Amino acid sequence: MTTALHHQLQLQFSRGGQLQRRDFLKSIAGSAAVAGGLTWSDQLTASAADLRKQGKACILLWMQGGPSQFETFSPKPGHENGGETKAISTAVPGIEIAAGLPKTAEMMKDLCVIRSMNSREGAHPRATYLMHTGYLPTASVKYPTLGSIVSHEIGDHGAELPSFVRIGGGRFGDSAGLLGVDYDPFVMQSAGRSPDNTSLPTSTARYNRRLNLLGKLEQDFASQGGQQEVADHQKVYDRAAKMILSPQMKAFDLDKESASTRKLYGESEFGKGCLLARRLVQAGVTFIEVSLGNWDTHFDNFTNTTRLCGQLDQPFAALIQDLKQQGMLDNTLVLWMGEFGRTPKINPRSGRDHFPKAFNMALAGGGVKGGQVIGKTNASGDSVTDSPVNVNDMLRTVVSGLGIDADKENMSNIGRPIKIVDGGRLVPGIFG
């Protein structure tokens, strides 16, 4: 097996399911359990094992570069800060979004838009890290990214496929951090072809013989004091081998989908990534992140955002529609977000610069109450005037919506307990 595969297939494993609330089974002994349904508040007390049985999953659509709120979900037509961008009606009377997202507008009954996101970080690396972890980067503690947290807490650790797959784009500090390499993302640069280094170079029998030979060779190093290194190395290889030989690898093959379904998502890389995300959820993958960039529109903002919205609109709407038709939307939380927003005032280059003070994000599925907007900004869009939501508010709400205890502590490498989300409050009204 190649070194490239060794580095690529740092898949997540289990240390064993742990109950988040010891008396969960007692709490569901009544009529709710008999009826087979749990309310959102019940889910907050569910164990990881029970959540795996429910098939909880999350898809994060990451808009790398910082998407303009004015050209997506918070247009300001009629104000000079709104620029050239027009607003269009949606499937929900009274809610308008930018004209570049007509298909998304048709899905508004399933969407919850937060227009009052705010942060203090306006630099790409730090803001990206913050939005994914809830923490700012430090030299002493490596904080886990959201996908690693969800994978660690509710992923199916016995599955043959990784529980955390990231499609496209590289990011600063995007790792499992203190949770260990077992929960790092399995990275795919493109959704339109099989993952790199996952094709057998020989027959299955010969492949297994090579693995056995590798194990024997490593024992010499283990006997000289390298037991832990060998154990970690073998764990990664064993997991990778299990994945490569699994019949579930067909989940990565988009050609298994009908022509009509592929057409629904479109032929763009982002569209293929969204379709692959749906297939992976069906195959039992817990967290998939799909990237679309570059939203860093310092120059010619209106032309660039029109192009980007054209890449986003059809796949985003198709993903929600497809999940709903497949009966998967109720258990799959879909997040749309970037690291910050763009400045209300248009710069001399017809662009918008970084603006963390007021921006937007959107959620769907997973129990989210659709057809609503939370928060608002003033007429010029330069400040939040109602229901402000900071990064840790958002992350606490998201992980809690997935049934994860946001206050659970994991131990860092320096012996410091680290909460999954430090502070923040549940944003009321998001989950019905």
Can you give a write-up of this model?
The structure is a single chain. With 432 residues, the protein is an alpha/beta fold. It has a domain at 44-155 and 271-419: Alkaline Phosphatase, subunit A. It has helices at residues 3-8, 24-27, 31-35, 40-43, 48-54, 102-106, 124-133, 146-154, 204-244, 259-265, 269-282, 301-325, 391-401, and strands at residues 57-63, 87-89, 96-98, 111-118, 164-167, 186-188, 287-292, 332-337, 341-342, 354-355, 359-364, 372-374, 376-377, 384-386, 389-390, 409-411, 417-419. Strands 1, 4, 5, 6, 7, 8, 11, 12 and 15 form a 9-stranded mixed sheet that branches. A two-stranded antiparallel ribbon has the order 2-3. Strands 9-10 form a two-stranded antiparallel ribbon. A hairpin with a 6-residue loop joins strand 13 and strand 14 (384-386). The longest helix has 41 residues, at 204-244. Mean pLDDT is 86; it is low at 1-46.
Q: Which class of secondary structure composition applies to the elements? A: alpha/beta
Order of helices and strands: HHHHHEEEHEHHEEHHHEHEEEEEEEEHEE
> Going by CATH, what is the homologous superfamily of the domain at 44-155 and 271-419?
Alkaline Phosphatase, subunit A
> Count the strands?
17
- The amount of beta strand, in percent, is 15-25%
Quick recap:
With 432 residues, the chain is an alpha/beta fold.
